[in-house]
């Protein structure tokens, strides 16, 4: 069993370095996805990303002397978590980013903790809504509406559908946050490796749709794929465990403020993206909503 500290000390500079490093890694994933998905179909990109990460996490699991979990019940939750935490969101984000800028995708994903709050009201007994959480969720929804645009929502086109796909991906991550509560108590590295194994199995029939054997991606696309698999997917997973072990889930939750900011910065620096005034307003509304919801959790 992984060691879990019983008491947390005040966050140190090292703790914040871990948090900012992970946020930087996750924020950059939208830029690398934008590059890779232009040449590697979305489902194929997601599947290859998972398979490479699976190999890495299986080796880490073996190194720590752990084995894959045993039992139908745990594997049922593992497959559910793999579907909502990897397969569906990775595929939706890739499809969406064929037309949606990396910075905008990062902002859309910021609503994940707000959706989690709504789901927790119905599927958990210890996380109830209060006025701060409600105000946070409302601000987040307004932010999404501002980001997509009222006119676009009233006449849904291809780009709007792709934006909504990314919003759905954020919702998938929120669903997964509820599911993973059922996996608490199992060796963490074992569970993380099992999630990638399950995701790889789910992807087997799906990739046939895109006939990946016919694609010839460039070096830039292949490098972006490798960075996505090794960085945000494999190394990022392990960094999550380290941060939560060091300072707990509440400290880790601050990453929701950092990822969209880094996502926007990477899009501007490496893809030449420029956000509209609406996008800046939407990001401010969503992040303020997340801040209010965190205050509601603390209360």
Structure description:
By secondary structure, the protein is mostly helical. The chain has one domain. 77% of the residues lie in helices and 0% in strands. The protein contains twelve helices and no strands. Helix 1 crosses helix 4 (102-109), helix 1 packs across helix 11 and helix 3 packs across helix 9. It is globular and about 50 Å long. The model is unreliable at 3-7 (pLDDT under 50).
- Helicity range: over 70%
Instruction: Report on the biggest sheet.
Output: none
Average pLDDT number = 90
Number of helices: 12
Radius of gyration, in angstroms, nearest whole number: 19 Å
Overall tally of domains: 1
Q: What is the overall silhouette?
A: globular
Q: H/E order of the elements?
A: HHHHHHHHHHHH
Provide the β-strand percentage band: under 5%
Structural class, please?
Answer: mainly alpha
Distance between the amino and carboxyl termini: 32 Å
Identify low-pLDDT runs. Answer: 3-7
Number of strands: 0
